[in-house]
Amino acid sequence: MITIRQEKPEDVAAIYTVNEQAFGQAAEAELVDKLRANGKVTLSLVAVQDGEIVGHILFSPMTIESGEQTFAAVGLGPMAVRPEFQKQGIGSQLIARGLEQCRAHGHACVIVLGHPEYYPRFGFVPASRYGIRCEYDVPDEVFMALELRDGALGAGLAKYQPEFNEV
User: What is the CATH number of domain 2-165?
Assistant: First the structure.
């Protein structure tokens, strides 16, 4: 049975390992550590099975800049599940719980840069439908948004934390 819970300080090394194994490189694991060290984590959840951390999801603050206005958003990612535990619904549980907690904490919208065939099952649509574009040059179908509160999204340029440029 999988338990989804908040990250604890003693989970840091296991979270690094999960991200490194899931992505086959250290970049995402290092990103998580940098965001955490710089106090830029909105929400960090782990999936635990038999006392072992097998999955992780991180949400961090973002902005959507539109002319003179800036709107707050939350970025989903990275989300990682150890390879031997993938395709068992653990990632879906992490996303569902994360979105539920973001909504409960009053966040208005979530942005994700991810697989276009995976994230729409959670309600994500191409961010371009809201007139939102990414600060990075990415294909339209992989840059998605989800309103947690109706009418929360408006056109603008979505910007990630500077740490995303460092890895």
Answer: 3.40.630.30
